[in-house]
Amino acid sequence: MKKHYVGSEIGQLRSVMLHRPNLSLKRLTPSNCQELLFDDVLSVERAGEEHDVFSNLLRQQGVEVLLLGDLLTETLDITEAREWLLNTQISDYRLGPSFARDVRAWLAERSFRELANYLTGGLTYGEIPEVIKSISVETHDANDFIMKPLPNHLFTRDTSCWIYNGTSINPMAKQARRRETNNIRAIYRWHPAFADGAFIKYFGNEEINYDHATLEGGDVLVLGRGTVLIGMSERTTPQGVEFLVDSLFKHQQATRVIAVELPKHRSCMHLDTVMTHIDIDTFSVYPEVVRSDVQCWTLTPDGHGGIKRVSEKGLVYAIEQALGLDQVKLITTGGDAFEAEREQWNDANNVLTIRPGVVVGYERNTWTNEKYDKAGITVLPIPGDELGRGRGGARCMSCPLERDGI
Ligand SMILES: NC(=[NH2+])NCCC[C@H](N)C(=O)O
Fold first, then answer.
1. pTM of the model
2. 59/15 Cα distance (integer angstroms)
3. Domains of the chain (ranges, CATH numbers)
4. How does pLDDT run across 318-346, given as a tens digit for each residue?
5. How many percent of the chain have pLDDT more than 90?
6. Ligand 1 pocket test: which of 16, 150, 155 has the largest number of ligand atoms within 8 Å of its C-beta?
7. Which atom of ligand 1 is nearest to the CA of 157?
8. Res 1 pLDDT > 50
9. What would be one Gene Ontology cellular-component term for the protein (predicted)?
10. Atom of ligand 1 nearest to the CA of 396
């Protein structure tokens, strides 16, 4: 059986889950893209090609690449999983009992691949056969969505995140991304690659209303040596952090969590948009946000089943203490203030480390890439003119399933 274990941010990467988007991007228009958390519409073909460059590069580097679309298709082959997903994504409460039943019955007859495409790419009224009648059909246009597309599945980093011997299946902050979690729950529950896996589900596996306890994987950095760094951002709340940390400690998977407060705005929606770990003692940071005066806390088990919280002098100091390093090196976003702001927006800091000192990043961020180069960090460049419009780079677009520790 395959072992799912993520021991760090920078140890040899062995297996990742990616999502090659297609139908969901075809449905992205100027009128709906903002609501779906994209800043523009994309050339679907070009985005697919860029994504292929990314996945091929990872394969060439010896990393196993699993595609979410394939995993979901294979999961749908299992009757129980298919029924659960249909009942969850096309619920009676979403469509009304009779219409929901008819739509589910029609979807259940599609091929598994087609159904997986609808579950990620969305379904319109125009796509269901005319015989399915309801007041809902009569009050909607052919291009209205029965089920909205999930273009942000592209960012597999966020919906679940693996931390040491387990995973958190994340309650997402934004409405546009909430249904992604159900697709991932089904994969981890039923797909043969995971179903009998001996891994812990730290948080988010139940179908309940998590209310304000939201958490997204872009905010979670597995620093290694028992430490996890979590950003409290636009998406990840202190409530979400408390649930995850409590579970990490109860399962004895982490001995220390550093929680850092981030501004609540889109340009730094997740910690990994402003900070990533790229070599044992080296981090990439956007200094406008990761400043020396950011508020941060170290959380440790209090010995009685609770959490002890200590306010830290600074983030860098807290990391040095946790990792036992004399001095952490920071590589800041390149260029002057204008260039740095532009490159951070285009995910210059959001690189995916494949092994210590070797990262994948967008080729367009020339100023920052030059700084990485000068610091002895190897950048394997990928095109991202289209993919980048969703506001995510190589780290956001990958969910490590297996990675060595440090
Ligand atoms: N880990 C990340 N930084 N993910 C970026 C996600 C971008 C996505 N459009 C969103 O708004 O949710």
1. 0.97
2. 9
3. 5-67+151-179+187-403 (3.75.10.10), 71-147 (1.10.3930.10)
4. 999 999 999 999 999 999 999 999 999 99
5. 92
6. 155
7. 1
8. no
9. cytoplasm
10. 1
